[in-house]
Amino acid sequence: MEAEELEPRQSEALQEFISNLDILNALADEKRQRLIILLGSRYQRELTVSELVDRMSLSQPAVSHHLKVLKDVGLIDFKQTGLKRFYFLTPDKTLNRLEHLIKMIREGEKLKED
Q1: Which helix (H) or strand (E) holds 96?
Q2: Model confidence over 67-84: pLDDT tens digits?
Q3: What is the DSSP secondary structure assignment for residue 6, as one 8-state letter?
């Protein structure tokens, strides 16, 4: 179906999907998924880059890159204590965006069924 043939709600859902590609791409990477799991662990709520490097078996630059991607989409943040940064999950805003996307897709699908 061409974009011009879409119903207005379907077109809105498509635009919402496009606006969330950054989050979806960030979540698609296995290494970033592992970082999220580590940071979401009941016992490891805040971890430094060094601690993440030890647990991930990746180089420090690679871990830092993945942390930046996750921070840019709002899934994590850090607090600075002296020279160390402690990373932690901050998924609420991002999850709200994804919930809104899912709602719009469902509404678009309902229109197709009618």
Answers
A1: helix 92-113
A2: 999 999 999 999 999 999
A3: S
3-state secondary structure 52-92: HHHHHCCCHHHHHHHHHHHHHCCCEEEEEECCEEEEEECCH
CB 108 within 8 A of CB 17: no
Average pLDDT over residues 12-31: 91
- Name residues whose C-beta falls within 8 Å of residue 16's C-beta, 6 or more positions apart in sequence: 100, 101, 104, 105
**In this predicted model, what pLDDT tens digit does every residue of 30-59 receive, in sequence order?**
999 999 999 998 676 899 999 999 999 999
pTM for this model (two decimals): 0.79
- Mean pLDDT across the chain, nearest whole number? 87
Total structural domains within the chain? 1
CATH number of the domain residue 72 falls in: 1.10.10.10
- Give residue 108's domain range: 3-113
Cβ neighbourhood burial of 26 (10 Å; 0-12, 13-18, 19+): buried
